[in-house]
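cache lookup: miss for this entity combination. No prior model stored, computing from scratch. Input as submitted by user K.M.:
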Amino acid sequence: GEDVEQSLFLSVREGDSSVINCTYTDSSSTYLYWYKQEPGAGLQLLTYIFSNMDMKQDQRLTVLLNKKDKHLSLRIADTQTGDSAIYFCAEKDSARQLTFGSGTQLTVLP
Amino acid sequence: DAGVTQSPTHLIKTRGQHVTLRCSPISGHKSVSWYQQVLGQGPQFIFQYYEKEERGRGNFPDRFSARQFPNYSSELNVNALLLGDSALYLCASSLMGNSYITDTQYFGPGTRLTVL
């Protein structure tokens, strides 16, 4: 079945860039998503990328997709303390169902 | 516009009991999906409904069931609760149009279920 993997933890200094990585196995993935979850809250959609694109930029967020290696990354520029949260990568398969990774806990240090 | 709403926010049950969780989608959205998020893990897909019909089911036992009403709201039911059912239950809504763009899922705040 489909599998999405992420590193568990990332720690950066305020003002630096953060890069969160994700790998997936389903070659039929159509869209790939990044969601943010703050403590005790639901998931907030950050951005998404279609599988025939290799880059998408949205303000401080840059998504890079390497379809050959099935590798997705999310870069957050000028990371702020308010960016501290868990970030989930998710892929949508041909059945239009989302498969999520286990999440990356981003900690922003002052 | 209101986002996806879920009720209740927290719930405590004992093993063997039954629970009903409720979800109201974003106005205009016709599809609702349910996910289970166990502590420390990503959400796992349970069901998707569109226009009152089940469009997808994840790998969950028959103790889990759901339905969607004419106003597109939805209920998730879990029978014979087990300790392992303790989790955050998330509801997501989407337009579920023909385009994958309109199929983007927006999540509610979740219902925290604790089974003792």
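stored under new cache key. Chain A has no helices and eleven strands.
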